Amino acid sequence: MSNNPSPAPQPPPSGDPREGDCRPWETRRGLLVAVAAPSGAGKTTLCVRMTQRFPALRYAISCTTRPPRKGEVDGEHYHFVSQARFQEMVGGGEFLEWAVVHGHFYGTPKAEVDAMRDRGGDVLLDLDVQGVESIRSIKYIDAVFCLILPPTYAVLRERLGTRGKDSPEEIERRMTIAVKEIARYELFDYVIVNDDLEEAATQLESVIRAEHARRTRLNADWYRSTFFR
Ligand code: ADP
Ligand code: 5GP
User: Fold this and answer.
1) Are 21 and 172 in contact (CB under 8 A)?
2) Domain boundaries, the chain
3) From the CA of 139, how far away is ligand 1's center (Å)?
4) Which long-range contacts (CB under 8 A, 24 or more apart) does 213-220 make?
5) pTM over 0.85
6) Which residues lie with the beta carbon below 6 Å from any ligand 2 atom?
7) Which of 54, 118, 179, 184 is least enclosed, having the fewest CB within 10 Å?
8) How many angstroms does the Cα of residue 125 sit away from the middle of ligand 2?
9) How far is it, in rounded angstroms, from Cα 217 to Cα 120?
10) Interval 118-139: pLDDT, tens
11) What is the pLDDT of residues 172-207, one digit of tens each?
């Protein structure tokens, strides 16, 4: 007989479908949460909070042809790729959606999103409205679409200013684009007005929790074996 002590209980391997928020009665395929907002409305702030509140929720890392900004890390904030590589990926059908935003290409890699969802992880997509429109038009996709709004245009302008990332000309350009984005509100399932940050975060969290309880997300195997054995 071996003298080895019994092995210590091991945590589930990372990526295990039961990791995080996925409970036995939920389908193993993770949620797809698409979030859009006019620049400065607080999308990044809210999405970061969601990844802190839901351990199984991860950002899908998009590909972009725009150059990295100071402090941005390849493979973490974006996959920074050349225009030629981006076109190759478009040709190969590798994107769930892609769009030109502010003169640069952006795309959501399909394989990455599918792999995360198949492991039971929820996926957060940070999209512009064109991306939302494309994903909405894919018949088989079961995504939830959330629009984050500022309480007023004045507050939006103020937030763009206090964030301190953009010149006054760039702020005005973003304000003009905001009007067009806000006009597309009917593309979304949920509209969250980010006035009080805590309240908006609670509302977005509630949307994600409610989506977990959607009937179509019930794990049929669990249901049958629990109630109809
Ligand atoms: P987005 O990602 O939509 O462009 P950010 O998350 O970068 O916006 O937010 C823009 C600025 O507004 C940031 O300085 C952020 O700290 C601030 N902000 C976000 N939400 C609120 C809020 N509810 N109240 C006040 N300031 C906010
Ligand atoms: P930024 O360059 O400031 O990070 O992003 C600019 C805009 O591109 C934002 O509105 C952001 O939501 C959007 N965006 C980022 N990744 C993607 C993507 O993969 N697809 C689409 N359609 N938009 C994206």
Assistant:
1) no
2) 32-60+122-227
3) 33
4) 216/142, 217/26, 217/27, 217/31, 218/25, 218/26, 218/27, 219/24, 219/25, 219/26, 219/27, 219/28, 220/27
5) yes
6) 62, 66, 97, 99, 101-102, 106-108, 126-128, 130-131
7) 179
8) 9
9) 12
10) 888 899 999 999 999 999 998 7
11) 999 999 999 999 999 999 999 999 999 999 999 999
How wide is the angle at C-alpha 46 spanned by C-alphas 66 and 101, nearest 5°?
Answer: 25
Q: Could you tell which of 39, 65, 101 is best to mutate to test the pocket of ligand 2, judged by most ligand atoms within 8 Å of the CB?
A: 101
